[in-house]
Amino acid sequence: MAEAAAAAAREEAPTVLKTAVEAGPDDLLGSDGYIFCAPENLAAIAGVMKDFYDRCYYPVLGRIEGRPYAQMVCAGSDGENAARQTARIATGWRLKEVQPPLIVCTHSQSPEEILAEKTIPEHQLALCRDLGAAMAAGLSMGVF
Q: What is the pLDDT of residues 20-42, one digit of tens each?
């Protein structure tokens, strides 16, 4: 999902894609906008994404206000709680949501389905690409 969004964004504007482990406060400070992409695990954002927010929250607080953001969540059931958690962080940072969360539901419910590698269907990847392109276009045109 993140790769699809980033590839489409690169066609419109310079774009950096980093994992939550790689990204840090300097990356947030050096960016004009953000697309946060994370899986939902046990009805919450994945631990690695929580770690990213924990490491970055206070170092950038008050320094990225007003910047646009969007988010994508990959979930086995509904993804709403993970989206709410990211939205709460973004609210604390005073970011501007530029579209509702994109939630891709895999409907994985059994232990085997949950642990299996996921393949996102093309029609849902197209939505991720649309989100990336829209974010980049909005930034390039100064809409955000």
A: 999 999 999 999 999 999 999 98
What is the domain-level CATH number for residue 101? 3.40.50.360
CB neighbour list of residue 142: distance below 8 Å, 6 or more residues apart:
none
* Gap between the Cα atoms of 57 and 79, Å rounded: 22
Beta-carbon count within 10 A of 88 CB? 11
**Structural domain for 16, as ranges:** 2-136
Q: Is 141 part of a structural domain of the chain?
A: no
Domain count, the chain: 1
How would DSSP label each residue in 6-27? Answer: HHHHHTTS------TTT--HHH
User: Dihedral of the CA atoms 90, 82, 33, 94 (nearest 10)?
Assistant: -10
Question: Which stretches does DSSP call E strand in the chain?
Answer: 34-41, 44-45, 68-75, 96-97, 102-105
67 falls within a domain: yes
Nearest to 36 by CA among 76, 80, 82, 75: 82
Q: Do 102 and 73 form a contact (C-beta atoms < 8 A)?
A: yes
Tokens encoding 42: 């046990």
When pLDDT is cut at 50, 70 and 90, the band that residue 115 belongs to is confident
